């Protein structure tokens, strides 16, 4: 199972050792700051933990032997050099805690995201990378023990396979153990979106193990059975599963071996799935957000003023590790931020907008902007075992600068979130000592008036500039304040805390 | 017991991979089912004795 490399070493104020969490039987060295990753417990052969900023993976004896064989193989080092597999090195033997035979150190993933925060094309590219890695591994005599979407993370718009502990020697005559997981967390969500136009994200967010073949089967009745990939990977899969439910996988593996299942067949299956996944496409319906930059009523003077303000805010920031661009839309300011920061996470609620942004950024080879689909009024909660196996969005952030441009009115008026709550949310996403760059759209602005027109009169008496500024003062110091030329919008740069 | 397989790969999910692997794979799946069938008939006399 994949192990997310938490961006934030620990939630603020969290103790370094939490005995109630799964996986904390990992022997923490007395006096060390080893912290077991709550998402890493399914495969007992290896476990990820954090030590300060380092992401480490402890291996038992068998896993250590597999790692050494992997590191010495022909296929693995080139994948790692190409950035397709997370950069990994073995630590000196003395660093291994008791019970573990070896420790690996992984390159840090700048920001951990979950598949239900990815756009369609992101999920497809992640699936293709997983299959490519398996296709490279099989001829070299290796396989992956699982096939989960959580095996993948991102470096900007480049997917990265992070679960180095998943590689194991191939047993001749055995099919891929990760096929079911691959179907449930990658292939089925893609089929759902490509064939039916149904958003896969709510399914993946609600079910950590993905979509069951039987759930899929009910959605693909009648002629829909004939859509590419459905008859075999969904219906036949579900039916063979039901008929063999009483048989153990050990027996079935032996039967398949005896019947002549081979590595070549496994490769043919992988190639077939690659062909299928590559063909899957989804053109999302155009939403008004797609054209938002053109239709939102900004003048060119407003835009250039905003760009200068954002640039000045970022170039004057002491810390420029992570910038969070909330309500990123076409990524104009996220790109600007990427010129002055190590990494930018561009959050946007519209999947069509994010997919378009992802494709554009990927075409440009941009590796410092990660676009994510998320509604800020309904951010990713914690998921999986005890609700911490997959960290919530709030637990993963900690940005040096939070950009909230043309956003506050959508939350405050569009979603009825009280203004103090909006600001509490935005500031909580910043690291201690971080900065907030926020735009306030005055109630008389055409966009604000359009939103207000959909709500009863007098519903938002506190949506006023003076109230907003008073709230800002409770969160930090306003270092800079600019009026946009249109006269109905104000930009603020706030040093938080203190 | 295969200790590498920490994950339940699913018996049906293993078999269906043969079928999606093309003609040669279908042959493997057919062979598997044929052998199951044959072994059922073979076992019967033993069970009765």
UniProtKB/TrEMBL annotation, chain A:
Residues 1-44 are annotated as: Disordered. This is Nodulation protein NoeA. It comes from Micromonospora gifhornensis. The lineage of its organism: Bacteria, Bacillati, Actinomycetota, Actinomycetes, Micromonosporales.
UniProtKB/TrEMBL annotation, chain B:
The chain crosses the membrane at residues 14-34. It comes from the Bacteria. The keyword Transmembrane applies. This is PEP-CTERM protein-sorting domain-containing protein. Keywords: Membrane, Transmembrane, Transmembrane helix. The lineage of its organism: Bacteria, Bacillati, Actinomycetota, Actinomycetes, Micromonosporales. It comes from Micromonospora gifhornensis. The keyword Membrane applies.
